[in-house]
């Protein structure tokens, strides 16, 4: 078994932490993991995706998956999912995204409007077997007053909707061990995500 | 605790963490480093664990001092490691070459991370392997975190055996890649040493120098002889097309392995672990019965040239591929390597990567562009804003390396060049000597201590018409992950120390010095105006802590951050906050193209620095109600 995941978003930290969490869960399940985490480079507003590969060691060597070949693109920011299409292809790749638009200042400066969700989906469709959109950012804002919990929630939704082939219990314990502060909120966010994914 | 797990355990690790673990397993006694992406997590991991283990750790003021500190320990019989990025070795090189001659008493590893493609916004794609030949030091290259852990320890052992520092070279996709790593036993840590000062190590005057040169060359020959074949290996699964072989080093090994699987290629594969000196015997044995070889290595044809040289004797008919099919620039990955293998082995994976990338590019067409930008609340944005107001964008701005280099992007566009750490001072000095342009120098605090001070001393000594030098003092080495430096007041082991004050140093060098709060436009403007009117060496120290550090501290302490908002009835939609100041937290929203925008501040991003409220001419930006 081999599963290739591309995790993307804006601002680095959230994406990295979630990446470490998923890596941990996969490892707990006894899977061999490989991947790329570009720490310290993405924090200043650029986009740098995290790659996570897990499964049987024999089939995984390269740190990054091949382009046009990942199983899942998970994005914490809609337009960054479009930027990940290089790694996706129609007969293989699923997309899981939230709805939090992080407008880059260059969008303002150069007067390029932020596309709406329909347009974003239209752009992704030629590269996607399936696109699932979860409003975890809005839900997190409502429940916790902070969109940051939307990340864990999206992971929950990806797990329970079957897009991310990991066990909810191992992911839950990874969430628990990763969040020394605000454990309760994170666990609640994860549980809400599981619910959203089942609906 | 991460990196302290028991031997035999399997742990997913970053390449840099695996190197830190390898050093711990080798019983390292002293670690000295100056941070630099993509090597930074090696010192960060060892810094974090320094209160649990006995070794000494420090962040030195630059890589040369770090190297010397590590060499001093290794001279005295204590194992040491000095991790740095590729440019760090340029800074240290002056001492590296003579220390290769002197040799060491205990294992010493110089860990150097190259950065093809420039992920760290590096200013060149330097290939560090040439330092091996130039400075006479062996180079060991892992392919992945598992090997990184093992080879770090191996490098210590070999260094000790031959009394010569070893370079452990990685690239970004080794240092920053993750793999499940199986851990090894930890040796005892030895931190006590003594400098004996044997004459044969240090006699480098007159004929002694040639003796030293011969000594190091002899060591390299012995290393090649004894380990040239042992360290490298041939993987020969070959059933078909055995007449074609692949020679590979570094991270390319992992790409090639997977590409071979995907293309169903079973060719013999020679994996080089020691890329300097390259074992002639190993290469000869591999190529002697081949018709063709493909050499796969990122950056320069370092191995390929050596294979060409060896083939002249062993197999002059051999067809050698390498940089004819693969690029010298940028980074390799599966998409780069697969087409080369397709060509050599006459295979087809069935995907046209170029076409696919074109298709993806079309999908991205017209999206709002995302470029690096100062964080919300960054003190540097505020300092640049005040400079822009008083000096404008059109004078010459001598740029330097750090987060403040983001001032190069619109709407600031206030860094005319970016060369190397501390270079803003010397370069502008040269320009000023031959022109009477208006110049402002911008330099960060960590950069000031690293290599800015000699430039300032030179200005003080040789230039009565020095420009205004602005030091962006955010208290940390922010760009590389917020490490402390001599001005922070903390050591790499977390001890409190007296911070060095940049204003005192500048004053001691004879500069006219002013200090301003980076978060006060009024203060910045006043001080900049004041200094602008004066002549001679002038230094403005703009002090304001990196907002990310402040944010983390406040979060830890459970203190709230007061966010800001735009009061719509006062906003005249002048756009200064987005177009001139450009904080990512401030949004300019239009329901439809061409419509009047609405300006709002995203409370999820705002870090409450308050500068936008000082910049708004209408006073429309205020702290959020109830906060
Ligand atoms: C010789 C060398 N060593 C290390 C680096 C990595 N590096 C880039 S910027 C920087 C330091 C920036 O610190 P500072 O000057 O305080 O600016 P800040 O990022 O805090 O704004 C470092 C260490 C480098 N580019 N060159
Ligand atoms: S990390 Fe700190 S210094 Fe760097 S851009 Fe962000 S706020 Fe500014």
Question: Could you explain the architecture of this structure?
Answer:
The complex is a heterodimer of chains A (199) and B (627). Chain A is 42% helix and 15% strand. Chain A is built from eight helices and six strands; from the N terminus they run βαβββαβααβαααα. A six-stranded mixed beta sheet of chain A has the order 2-3-1-4-5-6. The longest helix of chain A is centred in the N-terminal third of the chain and has 16 residues, at 13-28. Chain A starts with a strand and ends with a helix. Chain B has 627 residues and is of the alpha/beta class. Chain B folds into four domains: 2-230, 3-Layer(aba) Sandwich (Rossmann fold); 232-364, Rossmann fold (3-Layer(aba) Sandwich), CATH 3.40.50; 379-553, 3-Layer(aba) Sandwich (Rossmann fold); 560-623, Alpha-Beta Plaits. In chain B, helix 12 links the parallel strand 13 (292-296) and strand 14. The model of chain B has no long low-confidence stretch (mean pLDDT 95). Chains A and B meet through helix 1, strand 2, helix 2 and helix 3 of A and strand 1, helix 7, strand 8, helix 10 and helix 13 of B. The structure holds thiamine diphosphate and iron/sulfur cluster (SF4).
Structural key phrases:
A: 199 residues; alpha/beta; Pyruvate-ferredoxin Oxidoreductase, domain 3; six-stranded mixed sheet; 8 helices; 42% helix; B: 627 residues; Rossmann fold; five-stranded mixed sheet; 17% strand; binds thiamine diphosphate; binds iron/sulfur cluster
Look at the helices and sheets of chain B and give the structural class: alpha/beta
State the CATH class of chain A. Answer: Alpha Beta
In the CATH scheme, what's the topology name of the largest domain in chain B? Answer: Rossmann fold
Q: Shape of chain B from CA axes?
A: globular
Number of domains of chain A: 1
Q: How confident overall, as mean pLDDT of chain B?
A: 95
Fourth-tier CATH superfamily name of chain A: Pyruvate-ferredoxin oxidoreductase, PFOR, domain III
Question: If you consult CATH, what is the topology of chain A?
Answer: Pyruvate-ferredoxin Oxidoreductase, domain 3
């Amino acid at each position: 078994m081999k599963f290739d995941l591309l995790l993307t978003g804006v601002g680095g930290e959230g994406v990295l932490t979630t990446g470490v969490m998923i890596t941990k869960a996969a490892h707990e399940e006894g899977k061999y993991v490989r991947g790329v985490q570009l720490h310290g480079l993405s924090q200043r507003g650029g986009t740098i995706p995290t790659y996570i590969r897990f499964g049987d060691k024999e089939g995984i060597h390269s740190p990054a998956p091949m382009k046009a070949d990942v199983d899942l693109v998970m994005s914490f920011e809609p337009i960054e999912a479009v930027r990940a299409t290089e790694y996706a292809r129609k007969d293989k790749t699923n997309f899981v995204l939230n709805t939090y638009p992080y407008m880059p200042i260059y969008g303002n400066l150069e007067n390029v409007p932020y596309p709406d969700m329909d347009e974003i989906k239209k752009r992704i469709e030629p590269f996607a077997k399936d696109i699932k959109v979860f409003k975890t950012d809005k839900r997190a804002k409502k429940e916790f007053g902070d969109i940051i919990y939307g990340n864990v929630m999206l992971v929950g939704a990806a797990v329970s909707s079957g897009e991310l082939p990991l066990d909810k219990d191992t992911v839950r314990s990874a969430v628990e061990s990763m969040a020394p502060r605000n454990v309760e909120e994170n666990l609640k966010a994860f549980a809400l995500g599981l619910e959203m994914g089942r609906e | 605790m991460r990196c302290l797990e028991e031997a035999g355990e399997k742990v997913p690790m970053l390449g840099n963490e695996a190197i830190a673990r390898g050093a711990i397993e080798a019983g390292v006694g002293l670690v000295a480093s100056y941070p630099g992406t993509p090597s930074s997590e090696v010192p960060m991991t060892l810094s974090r664990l320094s209160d649990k283990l006995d070794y000494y750790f420090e962040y030195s003021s630059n890589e040369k001092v770090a190297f010397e500190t590590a060499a001093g320990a290794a001279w005295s019989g204590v194992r040491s490691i000095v991790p740095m990025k590729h440019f760090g070795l340029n800074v240290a090189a002056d001492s590296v070459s003579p220390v290769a001659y002197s040799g060491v008493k205990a294992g010493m590893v110089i860990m150097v991370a190259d950065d093809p493609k420039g992920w760290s916004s590096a200013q060149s794609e330097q290939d560090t392997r040439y330092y091996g030949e130039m400075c006479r030091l062996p180079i060991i290259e892992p392919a992945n975190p598992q090997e990184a852990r093992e080879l770090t320890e191996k490098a210590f052992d070999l260094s000790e055996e031959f009394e010569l520092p070893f370079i452990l070279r990685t690239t970004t996709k080794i240092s920053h890649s993750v793999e499940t790593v199986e851990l090894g036993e930890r040796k005892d840590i030895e931190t006590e040493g003594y400098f004996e000062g044997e004459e044969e190590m240090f006699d480098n005057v007159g004929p002694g120098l040639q003796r030293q040169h011969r000594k190091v060359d002899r060591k390299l020959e012995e290393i090649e002889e004894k380990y040239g074949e042992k360290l490298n290996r041939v993987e020969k699964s070959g059933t078909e097309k055995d007449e074609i072989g692949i020679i590979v080093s570094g991270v390319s090994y992992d790409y090639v392995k997977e590409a071979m699987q995907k293309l169903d290629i079973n060719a013999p594969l020679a994996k080089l672990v020691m890329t300097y000196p390259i074992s002639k015997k190993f290469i000869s044995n591999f190529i002697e019965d081949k018709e063709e070889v493909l050499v796969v290595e990122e950056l320069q044809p370092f191995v390929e040239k050596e294979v060409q040289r060896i083939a002249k004797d062993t197999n002059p008919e051999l067809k050698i591929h390498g940089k004819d099919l693969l690029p010298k620039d940028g980074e390799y990955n599966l998409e780069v390597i697969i087409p080369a293998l397709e060509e050599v082995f006459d295979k087809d994976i069935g995907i046209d990567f170029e076409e696919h990338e074109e298709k993806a590019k079309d999908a991205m067409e017209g999206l709002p562009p995302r470029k690096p930008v100062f964080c919300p609340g960054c003190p540097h944005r505020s300092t640049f804003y005040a400079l822009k107001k008083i000096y404008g964008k059109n004078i010459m701005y001598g740029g330097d390396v750090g987060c403040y280099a983001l001032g190069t992007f619109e709407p600031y566009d206030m860094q005319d060049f970016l060369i190397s750490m501390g270079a803003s001072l010397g370069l502008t000095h040269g320009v000023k000597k031959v022109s009477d342009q208006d110049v402002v120098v911008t330099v960060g605090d960590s950069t000031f201590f690293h290599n800015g001070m000699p430039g300032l001393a030179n200005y003080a000594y040789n230039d009565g018409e020095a420009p205004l030098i602005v030091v962006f003092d955010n208290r940390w080495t922010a760009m590389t992950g917020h490490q402390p430096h001599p001005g922070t007041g903390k050591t790499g082991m977390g001890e409190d120390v007296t911070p060095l004050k940049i204003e005192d140093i500048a004053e001691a060098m004879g500069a006219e010095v002013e200090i301003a709060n980076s978060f006060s436009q009024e203060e910045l403007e006043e001080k900049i105006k004041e200094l602008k009117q004066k002549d001679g060496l002038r230094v403005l120290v703009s002090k304001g802590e990196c907002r990310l550090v402040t944010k983390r501290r406040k979060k830890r302490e459970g203190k709230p951050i007061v966010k800001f908002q735009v009061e719509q009835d006062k906003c005249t939609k002048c756009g200064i906050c987005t177009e001139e100041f450009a904080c990512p937290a401030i949004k300019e929203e239009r329901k439809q193209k061409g419509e009047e925008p609405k300006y709002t501040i995203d409370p999820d991003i705002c870090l409450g620095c308050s500068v936008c409220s000082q910049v708004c001419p209408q006073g429309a930006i205020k702290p959020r109600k109830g906060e």
